[in-house]
Amino acid sequence: MNFRSLGLVSPILKVLDKQGLHIPTPIQEKSIPFILEGKDVIGLAQTGTGKTAAFILPLLSRLYGTQQTGKFRKIKILVLSPTRELAQQIGEVVKPFASATNLKTCTIVGGVPILKQFKELRKGSDIIIGTPGRIEDHISKKSIDLGNVNFVVLDEADQMLDIGFLPAIKRILRFTPKNRQTLLFSATMPLEIKKLITEFMVKAVEVAVSAVAKPVEKINQKIIILNSSQKINALKKIAENRAGVRLLIFTRTKHGAEKVVKGLSKDGFSVASIHGNKSQNQRQKSLMNFRTGHCPLLVATDIAARGIDVPGVEAVINYDLPEVPENYVHRIGRTARAGMTGDAISFCSELE
Predict the structure, then answer these.
(1) Residue 122 or residue 224, greater confidence
(2) CA Rg value for the chain
(3) Global pTM exceeds 0.85
(4) Which of 3, 18, 213, 350 counts the most CB atoms within 10 A of its CB?
């Protein structure tokens, strides 16, 4: 099957052609026809399976041709995402397709000045992509009106639950019309998500792609058994042996991330961190320096890592083991991307 046979509008097909994309991924092939039919859809798939295109291409196709003008544009699509990085990544994917269909998009996240967002919103927007916390800020300040929203997307729903966004999501959904189309994408299906589906979705169709989390076969996985006190020296040794290459290091907590940064910096390693306590500018700067190779070591927490898509990560190091298998698969999936090989090294102390 190719994109042309799915029923997407011509301007979107032209952008796909320009990007060299002709064959849909499994989640796209299964979801797009149902979304075009106007059905509520639950998509179960891991990060990196093409979920953003799976929901945005049919939604833009449905909106194409509706009259929208200047600052009087009403918000038609609302996309909620767990982290700033992921929201911005979604925004980058959406932009060329929205532009081709004469629709305007705006990304609303925390960690950046809200006044700048007020100005952006006053220009009018058809599509809002944002994190629940900042969306609620704008609702309370009456700078966002969700009364005309036709489509709501909850992306990485399980991660939004982990961060504690469930109450905020429910409050936001109550500001949208009851007859909207709701799409929910998630890697796993905890009980709370099932409750959310029951309350806010109507006769939802479930599509699943590789529901069981599996690591990429080209990742060489290794575990090192050690004491907690030995971890920092083991990490320094790996960093010395792989000097100059990109290493992504995961810790369980924000405090733990800063402790690792301090330990590495003391020995002259070029290292940065990315976690929830960092401002948006700090996070973007760290990510940019990691991407360009100016700072080859990046320490991250699970939540902040959503949306990190940097090519050429030679190894992922689990300084602290995650508590659930899905997070392990997600973490190590930051290496061996686009057909490359990579290493995943996990430290395991007695407690872990």
Answers:
(1) 224
(2) 21
(3) no
(4) 3
